[in-house]
Amino acid sequence: MDSNYIKLIISVLTVLVTLILYVVYQRARKSRRSILLVGLRESGKTLTFTQLIHGQYVETFTSIKENIGDYETNNGTVRIIDIPGHEQLRYKFFDKYKSNARALVYIIDSTLNSANLRDTAECLYNILSDSVVINNRLPVLVLCNKQDISTASNNDLLKQQLEEEFALLRVTKSHQLESVDLKAQKSAFLGREGEKFKFEDLPIKVSFAETCAILKDNYSSKKGLDDFKKWLIKVA
Ligand SMILES: Nc1nc2c(ncn2[C@@H]2O[C@H](COP(=O)(O)OP(=O)(O)OP(=O)(O)O)[C@@H](O)[C@H]2O)c(=O)[nH]1
Ligand SMILES: [Mg+2]
After folding, report:
1. 180 CA distance to ligand 2 centroid (A)?
2. 112 pLDDT band (50/70/90 cuts)?
3. Tell me, what's the pLDDT at 162?
4. Where are the domains of the chain?
5. Structure confidence at residue 24 (pLDDT)
6. Does ligand 1 come within 6 angstroms of the Cβ of 139?
7. What is the rounded average pLDDT of the residues 58-79?
8. 182 or 176, which is more confident?
9. In whole angstroms, what is the distance from residue 95 CA to residue 132 CA?
């Protein structure tokens, strides 16, 4: 057979296989339509959820179960799942819902001090090194909430502080696994070895935005959840 003819067949087959894989990937992505709200206790997940789904302020208490509601964007409907931040419940609920997740929202109390910065970073680190999150390439939005409070840091500063914590965490996490297999050690190490940790170096897209869920004062009437809603349209 003519070699040009073989090359043509190979090219056509490559295009076909790529197309099929793309369609299968898009279908799988569309079938996963949950957006999970995760984060530490008191960061504002439930208030964000009620503002988004019911458009109202409610007094919230520590969640012990998830809240689920549909949110309509002009790009399609997504299912929002608010996961309790309590240490003993957080990963249990996350594991229950992660396979059906389209994207994740990690909510931070932007007034955090150095003591809870570590916990905030560690929980995010665990989520970003989860194999389901990585394999499904779940986009992650870090929401720097409570921007109405005067001591709140902006998202650039919080991003930088989290990157510094991640640089320390990836060393401790991979050392903890020293006696275990090399593969596990590698997957516990996020970012590029020998380089400063940057969210941009992760295989998944991590973006940052500022919000205020309380919607009571001037700041919130200007901004509120706007940036979160814009991101939801993109991932829907
Ligand atoms: N000032 C201010 N307070 C907020 C904001 N968002 C939430 N809060 C308050 O922070 C507290 C905790 O909010 P929740 O929404 O219950 O926090 P959560 O993340 O669901 O907490 P868990 O259910 O324990 O995981 C409540 O008193 C909220 O009113 C915000 O944007 N600004
Ligand atoms: Mg809650």
Report:
1. 36
2. confident
3. 97
4. 1-31, 33-235
5. 85
6. no
7. 94
8. 176
9. 9
Structure tokens at 152: 């709140």
Distance (Å) from CA 203 to ligand 1 centroid: 30
Closest ligand by atom to 43 CA: 1
Residues in contact with 8: Cβ distance below 8 Å, sequence separation at least 6, in sequence order? none
* % of the chain at pLDDT higher than 70: 92
The amino acid at residue 119 is: D
CA-CA distance, 105 to 99, in Å (whole number)?
Answer: 15
- List, in sequence order, every residue forming a beta bridge with 69; answer none if it has no partner: 80
Tell the residue nearest (CA) to atom 12 of ligand 1: 42
Whether the CB-CB separation of 151 and 111 falls below 8 Å is answered with yes
Q: Assign domain 33-235 to its CATH superfamily.
A: P-loop containing nucleotide triphosphate hydrolases (3.40.50.300)
* Residue with tokens 């109405």, as numbered in its chain: 148
Determine which residue's CA is closest to atom 6 belonging to ligand 1.
44
- Ligand 1 site, residue 45, Cβ cutoff 6 A: yes
Q: What is the mean pLDDT of the chain?
A: 90
Spacing, Cα 176 to ligand 2 middle (Å): 31
Say how far apart CA 155 and CA 129 lie, in whole Å.
22
Per-residue model confidence (pLDDT) at position 184 = 63
